[in-house]
């Protein structure tokens, strides 16, 4: 959450510069002669992929948040399993919404409902995968234990 907050606190220029430099590094690998292109050509390539890179970063960071929240909440055995999953999802959804609200107060940034959806989808995927793995491991453990 602290890492997400730090990224969200960057103004638009710094945020664009950060994602732009990552894309530039990747473009140098995948576009032969990228460094020999004009600034206009380089900026066009960077601009094309910047949206995708930024949304992928949203999805990935919130997938990590989803996994960590699931692993934290799953240990509360006094709560029903589904409730633990919903609590974990709720934490991620509330943080995604509050993160976008926070960005409305950062220079050049805006809060986007679309980003809340992307963030939540990242969390949902991670939590779903971990929930399935958790249940599968529990079933395998029961089978092994009863076989002894």
- List the total number of helices: 5
Q: Assign a percent range to the helix content.
A: over 70%
The structure class reads mainly alpha
Largest sheet: none
Radius of gyration: 20 Å
H and E string: HHHHH
Residue share in β-strands: under 5%
Q: What overall geometry do the principal axes of the alpha carbons give?
A: elongated
How far apart lie the N and C ends?
A: 43 Å
Mean pLDDT: 90
Low-confidence segments, given as residue ranges, are none
**Beta-strand segment tally:** 0
What's the short version?
The chain has 148 residues and is an all-alpha fold. 81% of the residues lie in helices and 0% in strands. It has five helices and no strands.
Explain this structure.
The mean pLDDT is 90. 81% of the residues lie in helices and 0% in strands. The protein has 148 residues and is an all-alpha fold.
Features:
148 residues; mainly alpha; 81% helix
Write the layout of secondary structure elements.
Layout lengths: L1 H8 L2 H19 L8 H35 L7 H23 L9 H35 L1
Helix pairs in contact: 1-4, 2-3, 3-4, 3-5, 4-5
